[in-house]
Fold this sequence. Notes:
Elements: E1 6-17, E2 20-31, E3 35-39, H1 46-53, E4 61-66, E5 69-71, H2 75-78, E6 82-85, H3 97-107, H4 112-125, H5 141-153, E7 159-163, H6 171-186, E8 190-195, H7 198-203, E9 206-211, E10 214-219, H8 221-226, E11 233-237, H9 240-247, E12 255-259, E13 262-266, H10 272-282, E14 287-291, H11 296-304
Parallel strand pairs: 3-8, 3-9, 6-7, 7-8
Antiparallel strand pairs: 1-2, 1-4, 4-5, 9-10, 11-13, 11-14, 12-13
Amino acid sequence: MSSPEAVIRARGLTKRFGSLTAVDGLDLAVDRAEVFGFLGPNGCGKSTTIRMLCGLLLPSAGEIEVLGYRIPEDAEALKRRIGYMTQKFSLYEDLSVMENLDFLATVQGLDRRAARQRIEELLERYWLADRRKQLAGTLSGGQKQRLALAGAVLHKPDLLLLDEPTSAVDPQSRREFWDSLFELAEAGTTLLVSTHYMDEAERCTRLGILDAGRLVADGSPAALMAALPGRPLLVECAQPRQAQRALQGAGEIIAMAQIGASLRVLSAVEDARERILRRLAAQGIEARVTPTEANLEDVFVTVTHRPLQRAGATP
């Protein structure tokens, strides 16, 4: 059930490419000033969904309403009120930072004096003031990302759609970028961000997990972790690789991953601890098995049954 505050409403959203169903009957509602995250592996339908929401791709079925506009019918009018930032740097590399922003301001029909004031404000806010004359193609990954964000919010959009915007930058740049996103949300901008990083997903106020084009989980990160059936377990022993081989194929185990010298095991079975100890003892492995705190990786594995390597890894 969508909230009266919802700025994005999608019902039964579906996209087919021939025999491939990329998005399958998706229902989605995103409220004003929310930082809503799409979490999922490459190919799960995140980018396709975002492109349909902003009118760049026609849905095969379903209904979309964004900021009160019906999509795709009102897609042209919607463009003036949204910002869109893709994973790949999409500005002109042979133009300077300033020239790129001037060009975008002209395309968006901004008043020249107001545009110049807005550009100066964004150059300061995103630490690009000393790079204004530098060619965009010579910027670092983090600088390109900040320039792309400045271009996406130049016209002060009500909604900002970001498709895996931090996939090509270092952790410090990612942290700074997310600080900028929360600054936008605090000012009233609604954000929908797709990611495959667990630490980024934890920052979102609400999270939707996509798998094979379907929304398999929806809620705040804390609520999703609290609803996790069973508890993850930490297996500590002298031979974690040997322990992993001994537990491989056990029906009660959803997934395992070695974390340092320990083994993290996910199971929804009540007596999982006792079963694990028995299996290991039968192989002559002494171990200590204790419950541990759930994380978003555990949620992801449970709802998709897709094993991961470690928290924060790319699925």
